[in-house]
Write a structure and sequence with these properties.
Length: 227
C-alpha cells in the first residue's frame, strides 16, 4: 500500500506505509535523557504531513518537548502542556536551541540506501528470493528454509571471478549458520573452474540472460557463412 503525503508546496509525494526512521542513538545530539523521548525526525514528518507552514501545533503531553522542537524546525508555532514541571522546564530549555540529529539513511532516502542493481533485483525476483542490502557476501535469501536454516544467494559481480564470489558467499553464510547456498553465475569466462567443484552444499546456476546470450552466440557462430 502507498500513502500520499502533503509537502510544503502542496504537491503529493508517494510515501511507503513503513517509515525508516532510526532510533535515537545514545550519542545523538538531540538526546536529553527523557525516558520516552522520540526522534525529532519522526515528529517532523508527522507535522509536515498533517499541517501547513505557519499552523499551530498543540502537544498536551509534550514530555521532553520533541513535538514542539519539530514544530519550531518546520516553521510552525506550538503550544506544549505537561503535568510534570520538570518536563515543561526541559521543553523550554530545548526550545531555546531547537536541534535534530541528521540521519544518513533519511538523507539518501530508502532508494539510496538500497545498493542492489535492477539486474540483481530481477534475478532475485525470478527465484522468489528476498533481497538483502549492504551485505558483502549475500545478495538475498530463499523464502524457503532448509532444516530450519535460511538459504543465502550470491550473484556473481561484474568484475568478480566465480571463485571469489564463492569464497565471499561461504564466509558470509558461515556467520549466519547457513550450510546450503546458491551461487548465480553471470559471466561465462569462468566455466572451466565451475564444473570442477565438488561442493554439494552450493548449487551453481547460470542467470537467464547468460544462458540465452551464450546460446544465441553459439547459434550465430554455427550459422555464420564460411568466409
Ligand atoms: C510519553 S511522554 C511524552 C514524550 C514525548 N513524546 C517526548 O518525545 O519526549 C507523556 C507525557 O505525558 C505527561 N502526562 C501524563 N499525564 C498527563 C496529564 N494528565 N496532563 C498532562 N501531561 C500528562 C507525562 O508527564 C509525560 O511527560
Amino acid at each position: 500500500m502507498k500513502l500520499s503525503g502533503r509537502t510544503e508546496d502542496g504537491q503529493g509525494v508517494p510515501l511507503s506505509d513503513v517509515w525508516y526512521i532510526p532510533f535515537l542513538n545514545p550519542k545523538a545530539k538531540e538526546r536529553v535523557g527523557y525516558p520516552t523521548q522520540k526522534p525529532v525526525l519522526l515528529l517532523e514528518r508527522i507535522i509536515k504531513i498533517a499541517t501547513d507552514a505557519g499552523d499551530c501545533v498543540l502537544d498536551p503531553f509534550c514530555g521532553s518537548g520533541t513535538t514542539l522542537v519539530a514544530a519550531a524546525l518546520s516553521g510552525r508555532t506550538y503550544i506544549g502542556i505537561d503535568i510534570s514541571s520538570a518536563a515543561v522546564k526541559l521543553s523550554a530549555e530545548r526550545l531555546r536551541n531547537p536541534m535534530k540529529s541528521e540521519s544518513h539513511l533519511l538523507a539518501v532516502g530508502e532508494e539510496g540506501f538500497r545498493e542492489k542493481s535492477d539486474y540483481e533485483r530481477r534475478i532475485l525476483k525470478a527465484i522468489d528470493a528476498i533481497p538483502v542490502e549492504r551485505n558483502s557476501g549475500i545478495d538475498g535469501f530463499l523464502r524457503r528454509f532448509v532444516n530450519g536454516h535460511p538459504v543465502p544467494i550470491r550473484i556473481q559481480k561484474e568484475h568478480e571471478d566465480i571463485e571469489t564470489a564463492k569464497r565471499k558467499l561461504i564466509t558470509a553464510s558461515k556467520s549466519k549458520k547457513c550450510s546450503m547456498m546458491i551461487l548465480i553465475r553471470t559471466r561465462l569466462e569462468d566455466s572451466s573452474q565451475l564444473f570442477n567443484w565438488t561442493d554439494d552444499n552450493i548449487l551453481v546456476i547460470d542467470a537467464y540472460d547468460l544462458i540465452i546470450n551464450s546460446w544465441l552466440e553459439k547459434q550465430e557462430r554455427r550459422n555464420k557463412p564460411e568466409q
